[in-house]
């Protein structure tokens, strides 16, 4: 059975936990506040185990369902425990004060920064181009199915995540090497600016049509 | 009446000429080969005037419907004639040998390079996120309508192009300042890699859902 630990129990973490539980995975949901995390886990599925950030990770897949500024602290907290794990970065590393630029190198990405920080982990970029509501419903405002784009350099890691998502009822697609995280983060950034400017809603966004 | 000159009579130039003619604009279509350009103009609309690259531009809007490597030569050819014009860059500046990187600065874009080259022009980025087939049909593989994303620093230039596209039957949306061309080009790049890898078809791609 696939096992997954999700750190962060906000809308994104809860939606990902729900998909993983639906897909039959063993799911651990961790966040700062034990009570809120337990409530989110109950929403995600009866089998979802909750805990607090810092608990030993039970998942072979670890999702950082966190805003980018919180990632470094969690990586430090789990130093030495992430080697060999499939480590999934979902962040959109915007400068949220201006909504006008990213805080990572222009020729790189948050995912690549994380891969440099934790060289023993099998880092994937995923989920940053899908708003939480589109993960929760499986559709982009009812017009097209939601597709999770997954980039990474470890083929079997990508396969494992994509298989779990598809088992959980959400389309998922290999978007290429980890360096494509630059483009995925640009897409996520653009989508956020359009939603923040009310050009699109938070239940919409870019739907991938085959 | 809006007037538009389109340089390049390939699939993109012909699709844009068709939309502009449908929208009631005075359309000039220019390319290297007079005979092929006349044939493309006839497809685009009975009122579309054809000519060869180098002819005096009659449009207040000038669309560079060219692959990025051809842009510099055309800008040199029209040096001094582009000041005050609304100059529309549609390019996806990929390294087409590798399909793995862009040939413009990572913190910039082809559109910004063009704006630096022709500082008197009112440069817009548009059309690079919509495959030609989706412009020609107005839909992304029948699933969602096609939306042209337009970025630029000149509000009235953006308004003019967006109004013409909507008059021509295609949705169009203000995607922000010219610096957002970085993100639009990243999106176009990603979409091209997905199509080149057969993950999506050339009639599909990213559809913007509100």
UniProtKB/TrEMBL annotation, chains A, B:
Transmembrane stretches, start-end: 160-177, 189-209
Classification via Pfam families: F420_oxidored
UniProt keyword terms in alphabetical order: Membrane, Oxidoreductase, Transmembrane, Transmembrane helix
The Pyrroline-5-carboxylate reductase catalytic N-terminal domain, residue ranges: 4-93
Molecular function as annotated in GO: oxidoreductase activity
Source organism, top-level taxon: Bacteria
PANTHER family documented for this protein: DUDULIN-RELATED (PTHR14239), REDUCTASE (PTHR14239:SF10)
Name of this protein: Diguanylate cyclase
Organism expressing this protein natively: Cryobacterium adonitolivorans
């Amino acid at each position: 059975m696939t096992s997954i630990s999700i750190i962060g129990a906000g809308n994104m973490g809860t939606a990902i936990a729900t998909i993983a539980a639906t897909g039959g995975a063993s799911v651990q949901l961790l966040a700062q506040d034990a009570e809120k995390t337990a409530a989110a886990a109950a929403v995600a599925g009866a089998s979802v185990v909750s805990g607090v950030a810092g608990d030993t990770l039970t998942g072979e897949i670890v999702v950082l369902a966190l805003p980018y500024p919180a990632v470094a602290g969690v990586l430090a907290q789990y130093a030495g425990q992430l080697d060999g794990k499939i480590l999934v970065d979902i962040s959109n590393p915007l400068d949220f004060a201006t909504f006008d630029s990213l805080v990572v190198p222009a020729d790189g990405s948050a995912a690549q920064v994380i891969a440099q920080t934790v060289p023993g982990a099998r880092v994937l970029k995923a989920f940053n181009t899908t708003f939480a509501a589109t993960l929760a419903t499986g559709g982009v405002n009812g017009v097209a199915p939601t597709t999770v784009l997954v980039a990474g350099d470890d083929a079997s890691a990508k396969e494992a995540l994509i298989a779990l998502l598809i088992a959980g009822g959400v389309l998922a697609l290999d978007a290429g090497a980890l360096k494509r995280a630059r483009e995925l983060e640009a897409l996520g950034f653009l989508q956020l600016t359009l939603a923040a400017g009310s050009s699109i809603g938070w239940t919409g966004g870019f739907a991938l049509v085959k």
